[in-house]
Write a structure and sequence with these properties.
Distance between the termini: 68 Å
Number of strands: 5
Order of helices and strands: HEHEHHEHEEHHHHHHHHHHHH
Radius of gyration: 23 Å
Number of helices: 17
CATH superfamily of the largest domain: P-loop containing nucleotide triphosphate hydrolases
CATH topology of the largest domain: Rossmann fold
Strand order of the largest sheet: 2-3-4-1-5
Largest sheet: 5 strands, parallel
CATH architecture of the largest domain: 3-Layer(aba) Sandwich
Helix content: 55-70%
Structural class: alpha/beta
Strand content: 5-15%
Amino acid sequence: MRTWFERVRSTILSAPSPVFIVSGEEWGIPRLVAGLRDPDQPLIWIDLREADCTDAVAIGNAISEAIRRGLGSSLFGLGIDVDYALAALESFVPALEPLTVAVTASEKRPDLVTALDKILVPPNRLVIQSATHCAEFDDVPGANFVDQEVLRITIDEAVDLFAADRPNDEIALAVEATRGAIVSVEQKLMLGHSGSDRSGGVGERIGAALRQGASGVVDALIARRRWVEAFEFAVDHAPTRIAEVLDEAGNSYFEQGQFDRFWRYLSGAPRWALRDEQSMYWFFNAAMAVNKWRTILPQVDRYLDNHEAPDLRALRATAEVNDRSIVEAERAH
């Protein structure tokens, strides 16, 4: 029997382009899109979930970064607007095809979808995900829609996937309760354990597997020099790995001008993961870039009271001109 992933992936790939998936992430969209990678047809995944879609340059950066990740090299740099990025992509497509281009969270910029559809003629493939249906999609000729009936995991598929960890009747109930949205099924099975925790039980095994797997993902991203993604994944899933990718990630964020995003992730990291000199430096640097430095200045000053930290000390001296900043500047040099 084919797995849920194999069945849905096959449906997406066999449908004529463009393919629209109008569903949220609880239906397993990110893993499906990631699974469209093929050695003979590179995947360019433009993910708009975190992008500032009111900023034409931010969208241009998202396209540029997607190309770099998918092809392993940049076709054009950062800091260009979306129109230039699309024009450049169009000029390169004939030399690179066949390509698969996927856009997630496309409801934020449906005009990007219509532009890409004009660029990506066969043998190229366009796969579009949106949380809601956009009227603009109805005007795309030959559009094919993958609905939730296709995305829904069946009880047999779920039993095949989860039987090692859960009783069949519990799996069936989880599928019915979540309408077969695979991420919701997983969450219900992982979080639905009642009673006291049992040593060696499914919750413990899943937790250990997730921690080990998360560290492996960070290793894979480091090996591909995808520093920003490694950092963001570490913040969310493997905070003990933050320090080893922070320098490279911080430089990348600053080169791209993505100060708000960097600050959001640093602010969301566990405080215990940001206690070394390097982490304090980047935390304060990002805070200054988004004019939030006053909120963490007491924390920085407490750290400097107990550590030399010359780079952080010099940075702190630039924050405001007062007696302390002059002292810090003198100590830093």
